[in-house]
Amino acid sequence: MEETVYKRSNKGKAISKKDDGHLRLRTDTSSIRINKTILIGRDKSCKLQIDDPLVSRRHAMIEFISKVAYIKDLGSTNATYVNNNPLRPNEQKRLRRGDVIRIGKTEITIS
């Protein structure tokens, strides 16, 4: 029978800190593992929904191509920023751990 592990125990802390090798999107309120494609925007069909009038319905997309994560601005009205640099519409930029994406008022950290 498997043992229950509590998050606050030393064993639980060690398990939760393990790096599975995948990149994650982290906001103040959520964390999403980047598997294949993540659509970001206000629309309900987006995996990462941002309720902000500065965010387009389909604002940006993050996708994995050959084990590398890229972000693309989907022609948004107010641009997508990576490390304070705006992306041109449909420009694709490689993402690395520590990069900060800003969409509207939301900051998303790649970890």
Main sheet overview? 6 strands, antiparallel
Number of domains: 1
What is the CATH domain class? Mainly Beta
H/E element order: HEEEEEEEEEEE
InterPro entries: Cell_Proc_Reg/RNA_Proc, FHA_dom, SMAD_FHA_dom_sf
Domain FHA: 38-87
Protein name: PSer/pThr/pTyr-binding forkhead associated (FHA) protein
List the helices and strands and how they pair.
Blueprint: H1 10-17, E1 24-26, E2 31-33, E3 37-41, E4 48-49, E5 60-65, E6 68-73, E7 81-82, E8 85-86, E9 92-94, E10 100-103, E11 106-110
Parallel strand pairs: 3-4
Antiparallel strand pairs: 1-2, 1-11, 3-5, 5-6, 6-9, 7-8, 7-10, 10-11
Question: Can I get a quick summary?
Answer:
The chain is mainly beta and 111 residues long. 7% of the residues lie in helices and 37% in strands. InterPro entries: Cell_Proc_Reg/RNA_Proc, FHA_dom, SMAD_FHA_dom_sf.
